[in-house]
């Protein structure tokens, strides 16, 4: 997918029916399906 473990990503937007999410990681956007997004480890940072 192009993401490395421990890499910080930002949620850019999600679709209306939550079928897909768009994330930004190291100046590149990725479109991922909802089931793929559910397996990502998420930590909220202020």
User: What is the number of beta strands?
Assistant: 3
Task: Estimate what percentage of residues fall within beta strands.
Answer: 35-45%
Please write the string of helix (H) and strand (E) elements: EEEH
Residues in helix, %: under 10%
What is the radius of gyration?
10 Å
By DSSP (H or I, 4+ residues per run), the number of helices equals 1
Structural class: mainly beta
Low-pLDDT parts are: none
Mean pLDDT: 83
**Global morphology:** globular
Q: In whole angstroms, how far apart are the ends?
A: 26 Å
Strand order of the largest sheet: 1-2-3
The description of the largest β-sheet is: 3 strands, antiparallel
Explain this structure.
It is built from one helix and three strands, in the order βββα. The chain is mainly beta. The protein has a three-stranded antiparallel β-sheet. The relative contact order is 0.25.
Give the topology, please.
Elements: E1 10-14, E2 20-25, E3 28-33, H1 34-37
Antiparallel strand pairs: 1-2, 2-3
In short:
With about 45 residues, this protein is mainly beta. It has 1 helix and 3 strands.
List the main descriptive attributes of the protein structure presented here.
3 strands; mainly beta; 46 residues; globular; single chain; 3-stranded antiparallel sheet
């Amino acid at each position: 997918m192009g993401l490395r473990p421990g890499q910080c990503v930002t949620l850019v937007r999600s679709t209306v029916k939550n079928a897909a999410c768009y994330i930004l990681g190291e100046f590149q956007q990725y479109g991922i399906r909802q089931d793929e997004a559910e397996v990502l480890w998420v930590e909220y940072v202020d």
